[in-house]
Amino acid sequence: MQVLxxxxxxxxxxxxxxxxxxxxxxxxxxxxxxxxxxxLFKLADENEFIKGVVGWVDLxxxxxxxxxxxxxxxxxLKGIRHIIQDEPEEFIIRSDFLSGISKxxxxxLTYDVVVREQQLPAAVNLVRQFPNQKFVLxxxxxxQLSGSINTNWISDIRELSVLPNVCCKLSGxxxxxxxxxxxxxxxxxxxxxxxxxxxxxxxxxxSDWPICLLAAEYKEVLxxxxxxIATFSINEQVKILGGNTVAFYxx
Length: 251
Hints:
alpha/beta
């Protein structure tokens, strides 16, 4: 993890975006503190290429609606994320967490679902309970991508994709490989399955920068998706590389 043991700030990301022809980005929380949300607001204020923020509030708190109302005053806030993958198995079905999720749509906020592949069935149930809430699955549900693909992940992805209120980020794949060693061909069947399941209107590129640096540079991660969609129509390419993100997060 040494590669990640330093600061990663807009001054480091900006040149990468220019180099790779990326017009803007959404900054997504990485820590469970309101101060993290405020920090991302500050970075967005100072850097025009940050088009939206997915922040954090304590969705299990009694005063969650009050905190959502407070932070929603800043229109750069587009969604909320809590990193469920690090929580006990029962967290995603807790009544206080579900109550917090139920408040998001009132403020027009999305929810980023980040779970490990064994938590996908619970994620399906979460999305199903809130048909009017916009969800996006981060990192295609984090399947292990070295060796054969877990058949449970395949069926769970297909079940999730049937629900029209959820999208999927084509992200996080390079770090779900053994010892972070990969070939782009390894991802083709996974991408086929996800894109065929969700369709080109409900998938979006995500860099997972800087976490991706454990296994690949920004441009390598982008190239995986660019090469995969090279035979798609121009309209579909535009949607996957930005248009769907703009629509989902209301950028």
